[in-house]
Amino acid sequence: MNNKRGKISSSILLSRILLWILGIIMIFPFFWMFSTALKSEAEIYKWPPSLFPNNPLWENFKEAWGMAPFNRYILNTFIITIFSVFFVCLFSSMAGFAFGKYTFAGREVLFWTMLLFMMLPSQVTLIPVYLILRDLRWLNTYQGLIVPGLASPFGVFLVRQYMQTIPNELIDAARIDGCSEWKIFSTIVLPLIKPVLGTLTIFTFTGSWNSFLWPLIITDRQEMYTIQVGISFFRGQYHVTYNYLMAASFISLIPVIIIFLLFQKYFVSGLVLSGMK
Question: Are the C-beta atoms of 261 and 202 separated by less than 8 Å?
Fold first, then answer.
């Protein structure tokens, strides 16, 4: 019995050590980013490199922020991200409810066709979507930045899988009581799928906030740039100001961390329950 307990304790200790090692490996890039943001340009190129700045330059954050209209970039990014998160969660929950709880002709064909589109890289549809938005005169507009990302096959798939965990009897009982389909969705289904919506919020917020290629292509006016496009201009053709680049990147990372901390309690349960059936 003691040997068994000793083996269990050793395995737990080994698991914890492994988790600490993996945690340090994952956190180190963020630490290096913050450390580089506090260094002078000369110290960045010093060899051997130092983990900690000799003389932390906190003014690098202020100077980096003043080199471009980052307040405008942040505002643009927040507008795009908030609308994207809201509508992706709304449309995904409605479509996931339909796929998960309704029976109609062609349901499986439509669902698997949608999943096939998930496998296409976004670059395949980049030019056609750009041409459509150009004809609509949506270049350099918020709708051009928001609308193409509102349909999320991944979000529909995630919600549909989670719907399988909700008993059909619960919905049937609501119908017997005279509830309309919209009332069933809004008052019964939505509160039950909070975990998967929290998970989808994290994924959508992170993807929209960090989006670079599409905003770069569709905008050519500085007042419509997002934060990621603005940060890219610290990379010149022949020179990169790494301390300012890292300072601006670290600031842009803060909202993503906040959103994850707010919705992390839903993250694991949403993913686990979505894969149960």
Answer: no
Residue type, 208: S
Q: Which tokens in the block code for residue 50?
A: 């130092």
Going by pLDDT thresholds of 50, 70 and 90, the confidence category of residue 78 is very high
Output the pTM of the full model.
0.83
- The answer for residues whose C-beta is within 8 angstroms of residue 201's C-beta and 6 or more apart is 85, 89, 259, 263
Amino acid (one-letter) located at 54: N
Q: Considering the chain, what is the average pLDDT of its residues?
A: 85
Rounded Cα distance between 158 and 204, Å, is: 12
**Is the distance from CB of 164 to CB of 196 less than 8 angstroms?**
no
> Rg of the Cα trace of the chain?
24
CA 18 to chain centroid: 27
Say which amino acid occupies 119: M
Please report the DSSP string for 74-126 in residue order: HHHHHHHHHHHHHHHHHHHHHHHHHHHH---TTHHHHHHHHHHHHTS-GGGTH
- Report CA-CA distances (Å) from 55 to 11, 46, 232, 250: 43, 14, 26, 19
SS3 27: helix
What is the pLDDT averaged over residues 185-190? 88
